[in-house]
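Sync notes, pocket subgroup
Present: LS, DG
LS reminded everyone that the earlier model was apo-only. Rerun requested with zinc ion included. Inputs:
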Amino acid sequence: MSQVTGMGQVYPWQQAVWQQLQQPRLPHAIMLASPAHSGVEELAGALAGRLICTEIQSDTGLACGQCRNCKLLAAGSHPDVFSLSPAADSKVIKVDQVRDFVRQMTLTPGIARNKVAIIWPAEKMNLAAANALLKTLEEPAGDAYIILASCEPASLLATIRSRCQKYTLAVAEAQIVDTWLEAQDYPAEQRQSAILAARGLPLSALEYLQQELLPVRRSVGVALLKSARGQLGANQVATEWVKLGTELGRPLVWLWLSQWLQDIIRSRVSKQAGSDPIATAVSDTRPEYSLDKVIHLQKLAVAGYRSQDTALRQDLLFQQWLLQWVQE
Ligand SMILES: [Zn+2]
């Protein structure tokens, strides 16, 4: 368990749900269900700020940032706001974390009018942790609010879900994301490519721009085309992609391969041109491939994506995939 740092924020695509959260009597167990890479943890932070601030801004509904509670929250040292996330050495939220927090919740009154816990990502609670939370969700102390933020709400126990009031955030509209990126001075062409690469998920699109990932993604597409034309050998490409995977620290090459193939499958099934120019170029180099073959390659790419943290050798996996890709 740790204190929450920062004040959170409300992104433009979260405004509709933020308005719903302005109601005078909020439920004590709140689930924020959101698409990935859309800043739901920031929204949870903003709500926590609202629940403890003494001078809420009347126009935005946001915490003031100036009162004693806000200053403590911003410094990460507010005693009444808790955050439950997987510890650095763990992939799950454990039962001890939940028990610690329940104990804190029921201890002496705090300094703010409410106590708030943010559980993020809520689906990372293991079974014991979820069960330990159930009773608190049933009978929360009068001034306690529990905010469960999740991008995979269906993975939560049904008994947990049924005890929360659910607020569902929709996928951000492309136009809203584009305007948001424009306000950060990114040119139109880059914005469009980033939104496309990020499949519309706003914080992922921003990451493509900030980390300059678009040219890297394009270079992977070019290598794929050249290997299809016999201009690059599988070994050479595989070596390059392994190096890239290490540099990126994430299996993005596999992600891109699976996304392009997904696009090809979609456009073949719907008989409509895809929107991603790289996927279209890739598809054009292998028009004779059956849908089954493309689906098979896509599944292999997904398996490759999941193999990143395993002992499997990435160079061999890429080679195997490329050999199947170039094999006519
Ligand atoms: Zn304040």
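DG: The chain has two domains: 2-168, 213-326.
LS: Residues 252-270 form the longest helix (19 residues).
Action: DG to write up.
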